[in-house]
């Protein structure tokens, strides 16, 4: 199954390092990140899971829950957690799904046969409180993801969900944003006050959340 932006994230029940997880129920009204990694006891994955654990306060601040997945069994996950704590200096503080029969991996199209026909690629799904998919990313097994970029996308998504703005290239929280073209100048002025119109279609205003 291919998952596309705007689709409802498929529901599932999974065994995880934190017990059974019913996905939609667990999501509640939070944002969420579901991400897969190819294999337990591998170096890139070890660094990624450590970093995601370290970023827990950043996710909490944004009302984001995080869940990882690999096709290895729960016993392997449990053993590997010790190595992550030892080598990365952080305890795993989010659930890690064990998907040995690949049910969830297939549901989310996380196995790309021409890359590897049994292991998951590095997929990322950002899911909104409405349970719709807001972002999909696919990285190769050999490239660790940049979770600062994923936090940056969440900042942008949360901002644009609230205000009639979009975020420009390389935008970061606090920087100027773009007024969406569907707002007239009059409506923009009423919402944001004065703004800079570089072109009629390229109008900047301050980050309304900063
Ligand atoms: C890793 O996580 O280190 C890794 C996993 C699969 C292939 C290559 C690297």
Walkthrough of the structure:
Helix 2 crosses helix 4 (74-88). The protein contains 7 helices and 11 strands. The protein has 210 residues and is α+β, with helices and mostly antiparallel strands. 27% of the residues are buried. 32% of the residues lie in helices and 24% in strands. The chain binds benzoic acid. Benzoic acid binds at residues 38-39, 42-45, 141-142.
Low-confidence stretches are none
The description of the largest β-sheet is: 7 strands, mixed
Shape: elongated
Percentage of residues assigned to helices: 25-40%
Bound molecules: benzoic acid
Q: Numbering strands along the chain, what is their spatial order in the largest sheet?
A: 2-1-5-4-3-6-7
Question: How much strand?
Answer: 15-25%
- Our Rg estimate from Cα atoms comes to 19 Å
The first-to-last residue Cα distance is 39 Å
N-to-C order of helices and strands: EEHEHHEHEHEEHEEHEE
Based on secondary structure, the structural category is alpha+beta
* Total number of beta strands: 11
Tally of alpha and pi helices: 7
Let me know the average pLDDT: 96
Q: What is the secondary structure topology, with strand pairs?
A:
Blueprint: E1 13-16, E2 19-22, H1 23-27, E3 31-36, H2 43-54, H3 56-61, E4 64-70, H4 74-88, E5 96-98, H5 103-107, E6 122-127, E7 133-139, H6 147-162, E8 165-166, E9 177-179, H7 185-192, E10 196-199, E11 202-205
Parallel strand pairs: 3-4, 4-5
Antiparallel strand pairs: 1-2, 1-5, 3-6, 6-7, 8-9, 9-11, 10-11
Helix pairs in contact: 2-4
This protein binds benzoic acid (BEZ).
